[in-house]
């Protein structure tokens, strides 16, 4: 029996399981136990980014925005249409991309674009003049999906052979930047600005920096996308500087708030450590170029993608999805993570990165080790997600330890003022 009322969370949990199987397959292929599987790397990345992340955001963002604004909840019929459209379209992508069926893949990408536009329309339509302290996160919630629409357009241009000033590789880079640093990065930043005070029982330590942080992230992401697409490297460089500055301000604000709350939990650790893995590629690539005078090798690019997916995206998902499902069921996030998972999900990306700087024989072993460590850390939260999806929250089998409060009471915590 299904225990969730949100169909997007159901699909996110199922794709989280399938993605874990894909990572296991990658470990077996790397160890030469399984033969090469066509499109496996693409599947592994997009099972997480579209199958899990996009589902979670589509499922939660309209409701969160409506609640912050005191507006009506989204029409259930719109939710059903969006869910059906995005999942049908994603199945088309899963079938067509490994098989090289670009026209069918373009149809699938278009379906996801329409579903995202419907969700964004629901968020914007419910928008009233928000209170001052709510504008920054709402700004990020709206800007993030806009970048996702741009990222999908970049994917369509690659599938259909549209030309661009930056050429094919410029489009690929712009596509990745729009989806990862634009869509996911902005929505996650808004979510953390809203949730970390509730998790720690403290207002944001530097609340006046939030508006500046949000604009730095948005403008920086625009440079990260437009620079490669237009083949204007100074624009890309400015985008990197602005985005990294905004990210640094975000990390400092969150870390100071967590420290003030004195409630250091595994899921909070996932959040901060995840951001370290997000900025690692922006540090290593220029450093490698300065030290060697050469562009990063394919091995470094592969490690950067693997580390970004496992170190940043996966840790953000694992820190948020189980709690979101628990809150939906009974208003309490309950178990707040595992220190074992924190260790494994950071040692794994470290091994994947190390594989880029050693000999070929050692690199294979380190890559397999990295995947095994990631899977080990993945297992506890994955099992919890599946249990919460398919178990009645009132049953004795799902009575976990209540480590996290559902949120601060109005009398305990002064609400932060986030500015304009």
From TrEMBL:
Disordered, as annotated region: 396-420
Superkingdom in the source lineage: Bacteria
Membrane-spanning ranges: 47-69, 81-99, 105-126, 138-160, 180-197, 209-230, 236-256, 268-291, 303-325, 337-356, 368-386
Protein name as catalogued: Cytochrome oxidase subunit I profile domain-containing protein
Manganese recorded as keyword: no
Keyword hit for Repeat: no
UniProt KW keywords: Membrane, Transmembrane, Transmembrane helix
């Amino acid at each position: 029996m299904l225990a969730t009322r949100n169909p997007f969370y159901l699909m996110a949990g199922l794709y989280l399981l399938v993605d874990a199987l894909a990572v296991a397959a990658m470990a077996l292929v790397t160890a030469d136990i399984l033969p090469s599987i066509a499109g496996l790397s693409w599947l592994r990345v997009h099972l997480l980014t579209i199958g899990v992340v996009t589902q979670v955001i589509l499922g939660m963002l309209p409701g969160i925005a409506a609640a912050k604004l005191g507006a009506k909840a989204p029409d259930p019929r719109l939710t059903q249409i969006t869910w059906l459209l995005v999942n049908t379209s994603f199945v088309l992508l899963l079938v067509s991309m490994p098989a090289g069926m670009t026209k069918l893949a373009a149809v699938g990408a278009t379906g996801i674009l329409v579903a995202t536009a419907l969700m964004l329309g629901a968020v914007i339509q419910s928008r009233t003049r928000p209170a001052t302290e709510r504008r920054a996160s709402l700004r990020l919630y709206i800007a993030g999906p806009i970048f996702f629409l741009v990222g999908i357009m970049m994917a369509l241009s690659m599938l259909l052979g549209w030309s661009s000033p930056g050429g094919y590789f410029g489009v690929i880079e712009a596509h990745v930047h729009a989806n990862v640093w634009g869509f996911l990065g902005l929505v996650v930043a808004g979510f953390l600005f809203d949730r970390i005070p509730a998790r720690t029982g403290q207002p944001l330590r530097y609340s006046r920096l939030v508006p500046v942080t949000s604009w730095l992230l948005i403008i920086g992401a625009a440079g990260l996308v437009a620079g490669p697409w237009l083949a204007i490297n100074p624009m890309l460089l400015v985008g990197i500087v602005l985005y990294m500055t905004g990210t640094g301000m975000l990390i400092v604000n969150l870390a100071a708030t967590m420290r003030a709350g004195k409630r250091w939990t595994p899921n909070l650790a996932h959040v901060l450590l995840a951001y370290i893995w997000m900025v690692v590629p922006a540090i290593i690539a220029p450093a490698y170029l300065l030290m060697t005078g050469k562009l990063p090798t394919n091995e470094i690019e592969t490690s950067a993608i693997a580390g970004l997916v496992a170190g940043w995206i996966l840790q953000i998902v694992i820190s948020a999805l189980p709690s979101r499902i628990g809150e939906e069921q009974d208003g309490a996030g309950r178990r707040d993570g595992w220190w074992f998972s924190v260790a494994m999900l950071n040692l794994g990306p470290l091994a994947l990165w190390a594989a880029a700087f050693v000999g070929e024989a050692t690199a294979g072993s380190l890559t397999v080790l990295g995947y095994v460590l990631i899977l080990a850390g993945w297992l506890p939260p994955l099992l919890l997600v599946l249990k919460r999806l398919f178990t009645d929250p009132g049953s004795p089998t799902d009575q976990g330890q209540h480590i996290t409060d559902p949120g601060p009471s109005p009398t305990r915590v002064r609400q932060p003022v986030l500015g304009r």
